[in-house]
Each structure stands twice: as structure tokens, then as C-alpha cells.
Amino acid sequence: MNLHIRVFTIGALAKAAGVSTPTIRYYEEIRLLPPAPRTAGGQRTYDDEDLGRLTFIKQCRDFGFGIDQVRVLLELSISTNRDCVETRDIAQTHLDEVRQKLAELRVLERRLESFVTRCDIACAGGPGQDCVIFKDMAAPAKGSCCG
Which pTM value belongs to this model? Predict the structure, then answer.
């Protein structure tokens, strides 16, 4: 049986994983990726295992996991003696954080919508300095207390 192992240059790996070459160098520097073997000419070489690891890292980062969380998830992904509950707990904590940010963004959305609506009604087309948005933004937010 003839097994063919794909070998990637840093540029080919970057393209296959959808990241930049500086990102790969950075991940090697902080040891999320192991240092790549080099050719006699000093060029880094990578294989499918590196591509899988880099793709996993990229997905984690796309989901907003921090570098330290990615590091732990990478450790868990190859562990035979750690419970996957650890992985679930990391994901749950991150999900809770995302939900909190979404709630904050919904409040922000409502306030901005109010600013735009008030401007459309009260002053749109008038002098910029008279825009109600400036007055609204300078007023304490409703529900804020004693400062």
C-alpha cells in the first residue's frame, strides 16, 4: 500500500486553513502549533496533522475563545484521561459570556434606535449642533444612579 503524505509550505498551509502566514508564525511562537520541521534550505514544512490542528485553532478563535482557552481545548482534544465535561464547561462558560454580550448589544441597539428616531422626528435636516442625539448622549442613561 502506497501512503501519500501531503507536505505544505507555510503559504500553502495558510491558504488551506484560511489564515495568514504571520498567524501561523505567531501560533508557533506561543506554542499553539509545534515548531515546524525545516528543509535543508530552512523552509518550514507542515502535514495534514498540522492542518487539522490549525483549522481547529482557527475555529476556536472564530468562536471567540481566548488563547488560554484554545490551549486548554487543544490539550483536551488529545487527552485520553480527562473527561469531556471539561470541554463542555469551557464551552458553557463561553456561551454564557456570549449571551451576556448579546443582551448588552440589544440594549445598545434600542438606545441607538431611539436616538435615530428622535433625530428623525425632532431635528433631521437642521444644524448639526442642534441634533438631539448630542443631547441624548450627554444625558445620564435611564436607570443609572448616583455618580
Answer: 0.77
